[in-house]
């Protein structure tokens, strides 16, 4: 199954952080990737996503303004499985 690509817009990239805003229309995905830094996700909209990981798949509900963090080395594909678009800001800590 071919899914649309999530959009990414890098807003800051300096010696301390990389800040990227991600947009996910319904069914959009990031594609498999590995995070090079610890990071924090700041949801801008509520959403429902599927995380495909080497350990298995997990459904996650995003809540606007409710942040979470993950560690360097996290590998996954993020997919919007909801009926509405959502977006979040990813802050990677160098």
From TrEMBL:
Residue ranges occupied by any Cupin type-2 domain in the UniProt entry: 22-91
State the source organism's domain of life: Bacteria
Supply the Pfam families for this chain: Cupin_2 (PF07883)
The name under which this protein is listed is Cupin domain-containing protein
Organism from which the protein derives = Vreelandella alkaliphila
